[in-house]
User: Fold these one by one.
Assistant:
Number 1:
Amino acid sequence: MSKKIDFVIEDLSLVRKHSPLVHNITNYVVMNNTANALLAVGASPIMAHALEEVEDMITISGVLVINIGTLSEPWVLAMEKAMKKAEILKKPIVLDPVGAGASKFRNDSLKRLLDSASPSIIRGNASEILATLSSSGKTKGVDATDSVESAIETGNKLSELTQGTVVISGATDYILNGSTTYKVLNGHPMMTKVTGLGCTATALNGAFAAIQKDYSRAAFSAMVVMGIAGEMAQKKSAGPGSFQMHFLDALYSVNENDIKSYYKEE
Amino acid sequence: MSKKIDFVIEDLSLVRKHSPLVHNITNYVVMNNTANALLAVGASPIMAHALEEVEDMITISGVLVINIGTLSEPWVLAMEKAMKKAEILKKPIVLDPVGAGASKFRNDSLKRLLDSASPSIIRGNASEILATLSSSGKTKGVDATDSVESAIETGNKLSELTQGTVVISGATDYILNGSTTYKVLNGHPMMTKVTGLGCTATALNGAFAAIQKDYSRAAFSAMVVMGIAGEMAQKKSAGPGSFQMHFLDALYSVNENDIKSYYKEE
Amino acid sequence: MSKKIDFVIEDLSLVRKHSPLVHNITNYVVMNNTANALLAVGASPIMAHALEEVEDMITISGVLVINIGTLSEPWVLAMEKAMKKAEILKKPIVLDPVGAGASKFRNDSLKRLLDSASPSIIRGNASEILATLSSSGKTKGVDATDSVESAIETGNKLSELTQGTVVISGATDYILNGSTTYKVLNGHPMMTKVTGLGCTATALNGAFAAIQKDYSRAAFSAMVVMGIAGEMAQKKSAGPGSFQMHFLDALYSVNENDIKSYYKEE
């Protein structure tokens, strides 16, 4: 068994031991799921978006999670303020560029966020990562082919730009930081049939980054736990409704034995 | 077996084949359910409400779904803008006048929305449909009795006004457009014990209108699928909690055989 | 069997008989859960927060429930307006000071709300109740120890200030009004692993206050029903996902026999 599986086991037990406060400024669609997933895995969620209180909230939290799913101007302002404060406080920042590329407003907002502070981790699917890199305004000639190689190249460019970790979600997840590349093979296609599981993955990245300063390792552990919980849930599910329920149960109950029996590596 | 059941089977398979993008500007309470129901039935939800991006979002989507459940002024402005753009782009617009009649603000907002563009489909319960017609400011002497006949008359008047389809939900659903009337007998009273299932019905109307240009037929197919999924769910449920879960599973799994075995007609 | 259990049985049957309209101005995270819990127990939820319509909504409702979980300035303004109107209309007001003490903005907002009208019931955990008392600006030397005695003293001070009922949630719930003290021993620790169950408790307090003018008794009945539903759910659950589902089913199905068999008293 590889050493990497020990990272997952150790990091999960740290989340449960320290129950880190995770400050989320996220979208309306997934707030409830995200909070429940964080509770289930052992962390403590805070949802707060008012300009007047985001600085107080990140101050008492271990990590800031920013998700642009249902953006509007007041929320962008709060995100900028919270990211600047998190950077000053040296707290990790995790960014989910939901729907990047789908509108000019979303791309412009992403640029503003990237100009506010450098995310420790950015997690998205391949097209969101590509659009985030383009939105940064600091790159030219982004290659838009659909190949895995192209996605990895894009992710590494974004990682170079932010000096942080980039997670590209998909059938296989890639965790990139310019030097190390982690692959995560766990997961199940049913996870794409439930809204907001990408957002949940991002929030879990936050919980793990709060207790593990090697952020690429934190992202790796989070994505493995996520994928294994998905596989455990799928075994008991008759569709996306029951999947959601079993997924939360699995995040809550997943233990060392489960990780050892489900973990996949090439 | 009537021809109408074939509409349902064909339209459901078209939703699953084309997986239409459904742009929702909807209420906070139901965003998560709505997105999950759309995913479960085979469509692709977009939730976006910022004035700055609604035009971009409807441009890439197949249909616009407007729901006034938790209205405030910035959202009304975004709804007006999105509806105008959808009309220019000749995309269908589906409107859910949640709580019409409950406040002056809601009625005034409905008038503004109806003045922005004509919905292809309006779906509500009988009192919401009545209040929508009154709110339009283009009718007098609306009859407020509780009879089915009165509800149908109101629905047909609203249909005449919008030149679109009107769906009146209830124990029996009526789909009206001035000429054809469809009745839907499927469904279960437990559906009124789960928040937002009316909103889910509206969103499904949107998914079906994106793939079926005969909007009354699209509404009919959507309401039958909704009702059958409700009956399938109820069989396995011990209350509204488990009903919700089984309902999503049923939307995901409902197939031609289920439709044939559950479909009811007078 | 004590008389108090009869309060619970009678009040629950009144909620189901009258299905009171409960006007909630609450947070984004829990809106869906709260609405579903109110429907499951037999009440009728309204979620509406626009400044333009909160007065209309409380006018048609039996009770106002205010929850500060995801506060921002426009929502505080609407809460103030709704509370003033509720006081004029002599409708009960139930306040949930979620996260009180976590930010200056939250504390300042609480002071504004307490200055707008006196809540009939305030429900929070011990630290929220303490922070609410401090925020009122009308107390000095609040004792911040963690003892139960200290929490009760704080609750009674807050009750004296508002001339209302104060519910302190915890392993044991305390319902205080300066003279009577009710204790609720029902409940299960799994309830802390699901987001928003405190908010659900507050909303149930609202439903019961709408049909029971003795607000301390109403709070007691609501908290017992809540706790018993939690215990019933836990018996069938494998984690927080399935717990949520069974909890809604239990709120829907809990009956006199369940209450008699689960109710605990010292």
Number 2:
Amino acid sequence: MSKPRLGIAMIGYAFMGRVHSQAWRSVNRFFDLPAEVDKTVLCGRSEVALKEAAATLGWAETATDWRALLERDDIDVIDICTPGSSHAEIAVAALEAGKHVLCEKPLANTLAEAEAMTAAADAARGRGVRSMVGFNYRRVPALAFARQLIADGRLGTIRHVRAHYLQDWIVDPDFPLVWRLRKEVAGSGALGDIGAHIADLAQYLVDDHITEVTALMETFVRERPLAGESSGLSASAGGAATGEVTVDDAALFLARFGGGAIGTFEATRFATGRKNAMGLEINGARGSIAFDFESMNELWFHDHTLDPAEAGARRILVTEETHPYLAAWWPPGHVLGYEHTFTHEMRDFVEAVATGVDPRPSFADGLQVQRVLDAVETSAAEGRWQAVER
Amino acid sequence: MSKPRLGIAMIGYAFMGRVHSQAWRSVNRFFDLPAEVDKTVLCGRSEVALKEAAATLGWAETATDWRALLERDDIDVIDICTPGSSHAEIAVAALEAGKHVLCEKPLANTLAEAEAMTAAADAARGRGVRSMVGFNYRRVPALAFARQLIADGRLGTIRHVRAHYLQDWIVDPDFPLVWRLRKEVAGSGALGDIGAHIADLAQYLVDDHITEVTALMETFVRERPLAGESSGLSASAGGAATGEVTVDDAALFLARFGGGAIGTFEATRFATGRKNAMGLEINGARGSIAFDFESMNELWFHDHTLDPAEAGARRILVTEETHPYLAAWWPPGHVLGYEHTFTHEMRDFVEAVATGVDPRPSFADGLQVQRVLDAVETSAAEGRWQAVER
Amino acid sequence: MSKPRLGIAMIGYAFMGRVHSQAWRSVNRFFDLPAEVDKTVLCGRSEVALKEAAATLGWAETATDWRALLERDDIDVIDICTPGSSHAEIAVAALEAGKHVLCEKPLANTLAEAEAMTAAADAARGRGVRSMVGFNYRRVPALAFARQLIADGRLGTIRHVRAHYLQDWIVDPDFPLVWRLRKEVAGSGALGDIGAHIADLAQYLVDDHITEVTALMETFVRERPLAGESSGLSASAGGAATGEVTVDDAALFLARFGGGAIGTFEATRFATGRKNAMGLEINGARGSIAFDFESMNELWFHDHTLDPAEAGARRILVTEETHPYLAAWWPPGHVLGYEHTFTHEMRDFVEAVATGVDPRPSFADGLQVQRVLDAVETSAAEGRWQAVER
Amino acid sequence: MSKPRLGIAMIGYAFMGRVHSQAWRSVNRFFDLPAEVDKTVLCGRSEVALKEAAATLGWAETATDWRALLERDDIDVIDICTPGSSHAEIAVAALEAGKHVLCEKPLANTLAEAEAMTAAADAARGRGVRSMVGFNYRRVPALAFARQLIADGRLGTIRHVRAHYLQDWIVDPDFPLVWRLRKEVAGSGALGDIGAHIADLAQYLVDDHITEVTALMETFVRERPLAGESSGLSASAGGAATGEVTVDDAALFLARFGGGAIGTFEATRFATGRKNAMGLEINGARGSIAFDFESMNELWFHDHTLDPAEAGARRILVTEETHPYLAAWWPPGHVLGYEHTFTHEMRDFVEAVATGVDPRPSFADGLQVQRVLDAVETSAAEGRWQAVER
């Protein structure tokens, strides 16, 4: 009568690890799912810090060798929260070992790695092994609802996608050279870190693919102090020595979609005053939606089929129990926060794993986003439009 | 074939005189009306300043004796832009002389004066002489449209009226004792100057009367430097001498309406950071509207009959040609400003006069507002609910 | 070396019980506190539902007799999440038994009960037993930060407090007669449920007391279908029978504060389109703040000491690590939600208990709010200003 | 002692002619200028419509031959409000005839024409003949103030310019083929009509030049009914026949500025729900500004030099008397509208002409914008970055 249990092993315990922990901790408390999760093992490199993190974040055990986890029967899921440079190696091995994999975005730092991961995911699928890439913003209720509206034809033919992801945490030239600013670890800068989210979301929301892009990438501050301590997106300098910033501070691109829509994408860490302004405006022949994550409980919807005298963008507070995911939470107007997007992600992942269906976004979806980002880099380097590989 | 002409004589040329001048100047240029106005005479006390004002504001002649104007055949309309203390004398005489009267609000400084003016207006009506009180905010297109929505039943039974008029121009205790802060000239402070507008608008929008009130009036700064020069709402001190502020800085009241709605009214000149925040939110069983003059081209409308998942306050940009007054102006989104409310007022006044119908708000409407304000003063003085005289 | 543990017994597991559970679950995961909490016992009346709730919400044990809990050594804290009618009995007994008490607001349904609870809290304090009333909105980071700004003198002398708490969940006359609409259980309607929050917050933010009020209370829909199932603020009708609504649908009052400020308070469940719009605007001589819970991560601050050409209400996204409570959470712009206010409440409560200081808001604070509400009811009934008992 | 007079002849009396008329009518009434304007002649092709327009718009005379005007001594200024295809011919002739010229934007439909006009303006300058192109949005007080802030270094090094001009008046595929949709008259579509404004404004605000662009242009609806009657931006179809749309519905481009900033520009007539959303966000190392014309009285300014806990975009209501142009108008909070931008334009033009200085934007400024637009068209056609000619 009791539910099957899913043992989770999470690798990495920095920013993403903290928020994943809260999501794993909460998911069965709010959602009635076919399986119950156990926060079985927290895995990392530094034993001391790891023990402390496991205690704080509430994991039963710790481990420093992720490969050993793949042999344990009490581990069903590998949750990859490490920087992008290690995603491929871990994910491929885990899938081959028959572990379901939830992998943070971006899927990988290189296209080759992403392709290998997707191939591994495809092979594993045949053995009932599931995989998903963690584009958590798909699980913002307002965006999940936006997708419904668009799928229901409420926006009509899509004409424009205007997407931005604006932050300002490195505007200060004395902000240190953290790992997110080093290409060998992070793969790219604003492009892969935040541009990946809007590339994914835009395509997800309008259910269409970006086919070609023209792009511009810029690094405004090219030399920074070496990093000392860091946590989340904050950090302190480690001394007087400096190093080269090897990723983009900002990446802009124009896009064409397969269905005829056009788009503008802006990812930057230099939009002074913007903290986590991930937003989209989508214009269709019958209506428009607009969203900004800093006001994540709101979706703006303009219904162009109304009498023009009465039409206007309406602020839907996406906290009704009929909105996606909301029946699990609080009464209308009692708003949700950032971490809930991860709880929703775990909800969908657990349900998919427990019921034997493939969760989305799949590794193939993650690969497709990587291909968009790759086309952006090529276009920026070569100064011309670049088609996105299919 | 040419249109009849209406000769206007305007008394007073301060803030209200300037904006009325622009409205008289513009009204026939944008609206196709049955009469054409002439800015015939500007009337005031100080001959030198008057000549300069007439040249600047574009009036054909000047006069220092308003009584003499009443005998001139080329004057059809007396436009009263003086402080409230002189409204009754001028208006009554003008009406008796057969001149149409447009009188700035508040109608008068005392109830007795307002009653005399209303009686004069009633008597004059029989002789085809028209009168109107200048509650210009009724002619904000967004509010005129709000009234239509409410009249059409789109809000259902009205439950709440939440009205505020917030300014901050006298927050500084060194701001001088201008005429608007002296009871003998202004009648009252925030109450009559700005509270009158929201008392009028609230009743106008919901087409109902306030029947009783409980109120609070406060003067935060009771002594101020005597005034030197002033214009509009700005002024400079005239020296070291001070005088007593004899009007209210803020007036708050709760109200009951005849139809069962309840209301909150806030008029203050001490809402730091608010410049001309005249706003209303009206909640009914089927919907709500909200408005704030600082964003005067927007009306927010919540249609509660929609599916809750899709409902939300929508921002209607009231610049469509089907919106009240808008066919005369610019394409959608090319917004209007404060002065246009007066051009619309003159439009309605000229049309009423030329076609022989009574314009609204009538002097009786102005008197009714005075009665509300009087009940507020009584309630505040006596510390209990006070019925509004009918 | 391990931390002391606090055993929690929570009574009630409806809306408040669910959110308290999440807060108890999370508090040690994000805050480094001198004690660790155990979710030891969930207590309620219906054994079956209770077991299910305990499993869902993650409590170790269940109990149906709250009195028995008072004798257990492994229970340190009684967390009261029941309707107001049972608060006094439980809280007084718990305090007498030496248990720390966290009691949901309103403190009690009657002044006499609130006084008895406060007396019990005062007596218990001498024995090192702590008590706190759960006005969670004090722990909205934006409001905690607003209090800092005001305490630092950034607003100068306070002139106005404009507070509202607007909901619309019972606008539909067919919404059933849930317990919150029955005086014998809920004590009052909008007044005690939501008006209590703004009465507390207003006084807390400006650090002053309301001394007198004039009020209006209204019940728009006086008869409703009897209730069937309900959860949170949603419910379904239980059949054709109807019953009388014995509480207020809306309560409005004007107030005077000891320090000279004036205030407007509006609590209603009939503000169509408003879901949980708990907001305050506070105007002082040097600046203003504004807040609305539906955008709970934002505080608007107008600094009136700036050059007027540059001044304006600024939207502070209260997600910086230097903001109250925020160092525990996510990077800037990664917003928090409703439930976090409870996690912060538990954080402050646990710290106070573990370090032997009295947490705020105390039962005396809760009693003072009840006295304000009592004055409101008296004023509304008698049609005159009513002083608040000290 | 009386002021010199400037005789104005305006050519064209459609949308632009109407708003120019109101500006000429108002400019001396609000601004104390060294010359007084006369609305001497209205010039157009259709005699009947012209007479009616002159009466409505308040011009003293009419004329159907603009060349004849160039010989009249009582005409000092030629104000060109015709479609772009006739700008060059009229402007060059007028300048050669010694008439000051105010020419609506875009300066011309082709680069060759714009170059000829600029050459004529340069030649005329030596003879004391002035010329200006009518980018009215430079005279939005909020934008003039933004330029001051940026010039004063308040934004520091500029990093990003995010500009958009969004309309929706041709979303309906049945909207007819008006002149603005025909290349031979309009030159281009969204690009020249509205994109020109943001290209000009962006460069004006940051006082820098766009040096290269990569662009995308799209026509979503390629066939439309032939046009019947039209006015402003509204029109009705003239029958069943259709014709080809020969201009762009939307034009997007990325840009690099000489000083290192990067930019995004979006001009579209298909942003459903946006009426006249001309907006810019500019991010610098020390701060940011944001603006949208639909709320034209507001400028958002984020001062990044403040303590992060207190920083945030502040809404400056640009209606203080110390703001550009505002001393002439109403008290704070009494907002301005679209037409005032033209009154300000005429103010600056008249002052420049009367005092013998060159007004800005000059024809050279207009030409530079044309060069940007030309680079956009080339880039869009050739699928690569295109440098802007200097």
